[in-house]
Amino acid sequence: MTRIDELIADRSEHDSEFAHAYSQEDERLQMAVALTELRQAEGLTQRQLARLAGKPQSTIARIENGNMNASLKVLSEIAAAVGRKLEIRFVGV
Questions:
Q1: Distance in angstroms (rounded) separating the CA atoms of residues 4 and 58
Q2: Handedness of CA 24, 27, 31, 37 (dihedral sign)
Q3: CATH number of the domain bearing residue 37
Q4: Is residue 88 situated within a structural domain?
Q5: Which residue from 30, 45, 74, 91 has the highest number of Cβ atoms inside 10 Å of its Cβ?
Q6: Residue 91 domain-assigned?
């Protein structure tokens, strides 16, 4: 565990508001990384992926930048546009 992980864990333990905010931001960033990796694996630009998914390029950019908490519907549509299926799972904390 890195020092930053220790600091986050300690603060989360003592501040439930911080823990909640951190959890939401972490989910948004994981979504951003996953979409970026998917797009790059498919060899697509943001514009190309947006066109395939029937979304504005700005939507893809906002998700990848972590500035948008995309709905499951939007993520499923993006996945389907490149012949993929969205998988959701619960993991331990």
A1: 32
A2: positive
A3: 1.10.260.40
A4: no
A5: 74
A6: no
